[in-house]
Amino acid sequence: MDINTRPKIIGARVQRREDPRLLTGNGAFVDDRQVPGMLHLAFRRSDFGHAKILKIDTEEAASMPGIIGIYTAETLNEITKPVIAFSNMKDYQATPIRALAQDVVRYVGEPVVVVVAENRYLAEDALNEIFIDYEPLENVVDPEYAASGDAVLVHEDLKSNILVAREFERGEVDEAMSSAAIRVKGRFRSRRKTAVAMETRSYLAEFEKSSQSLTLHSSTQIPGIIRDALVDILDIPGHRLRVVAPDVGGGFGGKASLYPEEIVVTALSKLLKRSVKWTSDRMEDLMSTSQAFDEIIDAELGLDSEGNLLALSADVLGDVGAYSIYPWTAALEPIQVVSFMPGPYRLANYRGKVRGVATNKPPTGPYRGVGRPASTFVMERLMDMAAGKLGMDPAELRLKNFVVGDEFPYRIGSGIVWDKSEFSECLNKATEKLDYETLREKQRIARSQGRLMGIGIASYAELTGIGSRISAAPGMPINTGTETARIRVDSSGSVIAYFGVASHGQSLETTLAQVVAEEMGVKVEDVEVVLGDSAVMAHSTGTYASRSAVLAGGAGTLAARAVREKIVEAASLLFEVPAEEIDVYDGLIHVSGTNRKMDLRELARAVYSEMGRFTKEVRENLDLEATKLYDPYFGTTTSASHIAVVDIDPETFKVKIEQYVVSEDCGRMINPLVVDGQVHGGVAQGIGAALYEEVIHDENGQVVTASLVDYLVPSSCEVPTIDVLHADTRSPSTIGGFRGMGEGGTIGAPAAIANAVADALAPFGIEINEIPISPERLYRLIEKARNSEKD
Amino acid sequence: MKPPIFDYVKVSTVEEATAILADSSKEAVVIAGGQSLLPMLNFRLAAPEILVDISGIEALKSLIERDNVVTIGAMTRHVDLGSSPIIARHFPVITKAVTHIAHLAIRNRGTIGGSLCHADPAAELPMMALLLNAELMVAGGKGPRTIAAKDFFQSALETDIQEGELLVSVSLPLLPPNTGWGFEEVSRKSGDFALAAVSAILVVNDGEISEARIAVAGVDETPRRMNGAEAMLRGKMLDDDHLTAVCETIQSEINPETDLQASSNYRRHLIGVLTARVLKDAFAGAGGIFE
Fold first, then answer.
1. Which of B260, B268, B275 to mutate to test the interface with A (most CBs of A within 10 A)?
2. Which residues in chain B have Cβ-Cβ distances shorter than 8 Å to A707?
3. Do residue B49 and residue B144 come from a single domain?
4. Which residues pair with A29 in a beta bridge?
5. Which domain holds residue B250?
6. Same-domain check for residues B163 and B65
7. Would you place residue B203 in the very low, low, confident or very high pLDDT band (cuts 50, 70, 90)?
């Protein structure tokens, strides 16, 4: 077949190879793994938000049936070093993380005592017979109070509760703002959220007696980082500690940090020389898995009378919870809120101020979108408020201010650089798809009938596939900018592609196989993909920050090309023709223009097994294997516009999403089915942030959303049909032209829905400044507006 | 979240079940569909010594119509109740209510007896029992007895069922001709507990309401019938002014709690909104003409 007309594998709608096993119940998650004689753990967690531990009495519990041992900080912290999330940021204050709470508990749900038992039932029986004396300390729950200096210190050895702070300014913000014809501002609130992966966190440390080594099977997104951290914490050689992430049932960032339970499981396995398992239940998950999106943001936007953006200022207070999480630090989210605030717009003057403050709540960590859902919510609300004041259509205002054409690469006020991405095209495609003008006409009619119909736009840009130039988390000194792939054709002709990254729903087994197959010239089904095993790669971190398609895809491309060259070299020797005449396609190696061909199995047999096929000199240099590292250095830009159309019941205030369009530029698509699936899932989580999900702590720091009855996650009934449109323009900055796109859905949806709700309520003059937009909050806003109308 | 230790007995007759339930030396509880009990066990909010599984009692699985009464066995699962042609013909309000009971997976397991005995104040079927003047047949204890729905629900998660007793069936007297019905519920998400739910039955003769029943759920310790509002409707036509007066009466007679999902005021507001909707539906369904 002519090389130019061959069907491409990259870009094809290849069915997910993960689906058959997952859909038939044959997936292999950590908790599925049974090891003979393994022990089970249960944690006694803090009932107090903030208290001194005076005394722990485990005597009675220790004598109960099936109990192997009970451990506290006194016994377990002896054999585990504290973990510290370091940062290069000025004035950053770290908080050591211990396996079990040492002397003081700092949030409800913090692990204090661990019971080791023959099974989980007996372990939980013993929990009730453990007695802990606490001396309650002041609960620091409200972030503004925590930051005020009046509050007690969450960590008494620190200078203040402010773990991280930064201020920057570009341009002349005060001058530009005071000259602005239009000024809009508000105090915005994004409420605390958590990931709620379908699979809760689960860890099994398997002790191998013969080698005295440990394999930690962990439901983690970052097996490489966990392995490296545990080597230090437990002081064991890396070759005796392997971390494997098997099938993982969703991460969303909640499985992208090191957890105390992970340390405890591994330390106890090492100590007891037994295999040890712990699986979180849902209640533990809702009180101890990292949380996010908890910010108060004061922001103001100034525009000239034509609608050109002049100046932006933002002051962000992020409630980061009790500890600075490893490895990302407390800087992760609040700094990104302020860094991404200017969005995809041309804007010369920006002042950002941010503080991350410790409170007596669970630590915050990565969550799909990190910071950008909140920054987009604020910026896009301001854009709509400005459009309202200008009497300009919100789409028009955005198109007027997008960075376009030869303005790329464009440096925004926080220093982030956008490489070329289709900001305007994305919005234009979305408005076309919805027939925007007609939709606005329908809205006018609906309003005249007393219906509350709203249309909301959100446009954003983000950095993805970040290379070694900057860290995925601001100030974090760990390299997150490289990934490695090793591809091997073994002596049977099998193609095995090893990657350090892990997959927890991203379909990487499928998409990376597509990349390797196309670059090598083999069939996609012939490529086996091995992921998430620290033993197969010298270094890797994992999957987070929309990086794996770009970084692992790039490394896979380089390694596949290198192996292809070796295949061509071997074949040219075997066929005795110049290398240029060898073609590799569909798993067959041809001499171009002839019927001479062999398959990979024949080639591999010749290379590895058959005597006398090559000279000693050739054989010594001819293996069918390559390891390549890829570093995109800066990374690339991904962007999208979302449009939501909502209808609000004017009496019950239930919000129904009638239509939803995502128009995105994720670069060259590897698999459109997977891209669409990622967008759908991301939007679903964004709908959760916009309308439903909120972790609530009362004034004592008690978590009152400790089950899924109270913590509301949208189900299929709450998620509308989502139309996804693609710009499909290759990134100029990455191998393969891929851009990361796993998080985007969650970034755009809260803003689009908030804008749609505000648009629907425009007749009342109501602005939406707080998410989630619960019916209770709407009821109060509308009642207030109706009452003030009466007055 | 693992339950404490318990014994488990699967019985095949009502007598076997009531004998175990009557034995006061051990605390026994009935398990039917297990959709409320198992979470309570896992949260260790309940720690019975014996679970008596009644799912093998064939006699509790019938759903029959006889002598102007429909009798539903306690082990009838929500999914069967919701798809029963007998129920759809005589009590379409139940068919609608069942669609609001959690999600399909839960409806496949949960039972009417379990829902009534669990007596969650926001649940649909206790409200249906009140609305439809159900009589609940109980075996065991001092002999079989019949409890009217209005006496059955005593407070949140508390019923008139005594030690040693087992709910065996629920009887619903058929409704007269010219009956209309309405059912409305608001929950945060599909399948969630009701923030507020209202159901109504109106019988209309010669343009006038001859019988009115209104039941509400999610806004008090138990589901409630709104007797004052029912009296206001009897012998009347339904028009806008009267509807408003009825809704306001109901709003003044309930005292909803504030919780995480909704304030007392919002719930009261919702009850007003939903009452107006169900009464209009019921009135129209009964052939009434709304002025």
1. B260
2. 43
3. no
4. A247
5. 179-285
6. yes
7. very high
